[in-house]
Amino acid sequence: FNVCYWSFDFSDEIPTVVGIFSAFGLVFTVSLFAWICCQRKSSKSNKTPPYKFVHVLKGVDIYPENLSSKKKFGADDKNEVKNKPAVPKNSLHLDLEKRDLNGNFPKTNLKASSPSDLENMTPKLFSEGEKEAVSPDSLKSSTSLTSEEKQEKLGTLFFSLEYNFEKKAFVVNIKEARGLPAMDEQSMTSDPYIKMTILPEKKHKVKTRVLRKTLDPAFDETFTFYGILYTQIQELALHFTILSFDRFSRDDIIGEVLIPLAGIELSDGKMLMNREIIKRNVRKSSGRGELLISLCYQSTTNTLTVVVLKARHLPKSDVSGLSDPYVKVNLYHAKKRISKKKTHVKKCTPNAVFNELFVFDIPCEGLEEISVEFLVLDSERGSRNEVIGRLVLGAAAEGTGGEHWKEICDYPRRQIAKWHMLCDG
């Protein structure tokens, strides 16, 4: 009787024991799964993705050589030690990220050209009576520099031109730039790169990689444009825009170079050329469209109310169809961006109605050092949004931008609206 009693009591405790072990097993499994997930997440966050740049050539993406290779961008290994620029030891520089855009640690590089190359780089001068203009209707020379432009000393661009008759291709090699101004006041250097466009159709747009912390970048990048007949070259022009990359705001424009190809003979082979970089001439164009803006300055609360109302006559983004515009609003204080906003995207329309209001807090008394930049962009999936037009309102702005700003300063607490022509971005 006693044996049967204890046997019955033991079988009654089995479900309790099984339940305890099951609970411990479940807790252990969940803990192990969470630990594995955390390890994978931390390993992914530690990886720095390589910076890829794209050469846009007739709609085809051309990627460079493997970014993980040990080949030095922008300099020869022999000249790496000899040509390091002297940087003041006491200069203040804050490295927010030690790695550069290519995932490598930055090193200052210069490329020294041989004396023979420098002698051959003689520019072909055009008539001095022609004036500069980057428009599809008239392509004119920009070789004559004013005294003010010469005093600025924005540097010199070196490049070569060639035509491949077998492949019917126009070849442009951007070699280097020398003597660029420092766009970063802390490190007293720049992160330059170059955009190039073939005018007047602007179908061919390319850009070089970014070279970090140098005023004498050696790009040595070759761009080949297929399908351009040799007889068409005389009707074209090359437009170079030299910029400095800025990780935290809009890239700084250093200057530009315009090269009309009329009169340049490429049948004898490669031609080495150089041109002085001049200050970018902000040209107004009716083809960029117009923007209706309303402003109101509240002196009591020290706020600026900006209303983006409408845009009209916006150009097509490309031959495929209409653009998908939106407006980006940047507030600047003493040339430093302190706030940014943007509107919603309007699909497939040259005449967009936004009616969106933004309120900005002004960090100073008055609007003397404040300016507002409006960028009308075309929203594109999978690629960088292209700037359709640009507008700046402020005390130093010219034309309607300066007039509009003066009115809101003279009449605070009054909402004033005006149409403005957009400039090239």
UniProtKB/TrEMBL annotation:
Q: What is the name listed in the Swiss-Prot or TrEMBL entry for this protein?
A: SYT4 protein
Q: Report the domain of life of the source organism.
A: Eukaryota
Q: Which InterPro entries does the UniProt record give?
A: C2_dom, C2_domain_sf, Synaptotagmin
Membrane topology of the entry: Single-pass membrane protein
What is the predominant subcellular site recorded for this chain?
Answer: membrane
Entry's transmembrane regions: 16-38
UniProt region (Disordered), positions on chain = 103-122, 127-147
**GO BP terms:** calcium ion-regulated exocytosis of neurotransmitter; negative regulation of secretion by cell; vesicle fusion
Instruction: List locations, semicolon-separated.
Output: Cytoplasmic vesicle membrane
